[in-house]
Design a protein that fits this description.
Helix content is 0%, strand content 47%. The chain has 129 residues and is an all-beta fold. Strands 2, 4, 5, 6, 9, 10 and 11 form a 7-stranded mixed beta sheet that branches. Strands 1-3-8-7 form a 4-stranded antiparallel beta sheet, with no helix packed on it.
Length: 129
C-alpha cells in the first residue's frame, strides 16, 4: 500500500537549516509529483513546494510559495525513492507541522491539496531562540 514517511524535523534557532526527507513506499514515486505542505497552529495547511514527476513534461519542474522562495530547495533521489526539502535561513514563522504528499496524477506541479491523494503523517519543525 502506498504511503509516505517524513523525517528530519526538530528544534532549531533562527537562521539555521534543516533537511526534511520524504520516503515513499508502495508505488513508483518517480512517476508522480511530490509536494511539501505545512500547517502552523491556528492556520490552514499551505502548499509550500512541489517537484514534478521524473518523466515527461513535468520533469525538473518545481514550485515554491513566495514565503519560502530563495530559502527552501526541493529535490528528489529516485534511487532512494525519497524527496528532500532543504530549508535554510529558517525563521520563527516557519514553525509548523510539515507534510509530504504524492500527486493524484502524473502531471500536476503546484500547491492545490485537492491534487494530492497520499499523505505522510507529518514532522514538527520549530524555529525558536
Amino acid at each position: 500500500q502506498a504511503h509516505l514517511v517524513e523525517s528530519g524535523g526538530g528544534l532549531v534557532q533562527p537562521g539555521e537549516s534543516l533537511r526534511l526527507s520524504c520516503a515513499t513506499y508502495g508505488f513508483i514515486s518517480e512517476w508522480y509529483g511530490i509536494g511539501w505542505f505545512r500547517q502552523a497552529p491556528g492556520k490552514e495547511r499551505e502548499g509550500i513546494s512541489c517537484i514534478g514527476s521524473s518523466e515527461g513534461v513535468t520533469r525538473d519542474s518545481t514550485y515554491y510559495a513566495d514565503s519560502v522562495k530563495g530559502r527552501f530547495t526541493i529535490s528528489r533521489d529516485d534511487s532512494q525513492s525519497t524527496v528532500y526539502l532543504q530549508m535554510n535561513n529558517l525563521k520563527p514563522e516557519d514553525t509548523a507541522v510539515y507534510y509530504c504528499a504524492a500527486t493524484r496524477t502524473r502531471w500536476y506541479v503546484g500547491p492545490d491539496e485537492k491534487e494530492y491523494d497520499t499523505w505522510g503523517q507529518g514532522t514538527q519543525v520549530t524555529v525558536s531562540s
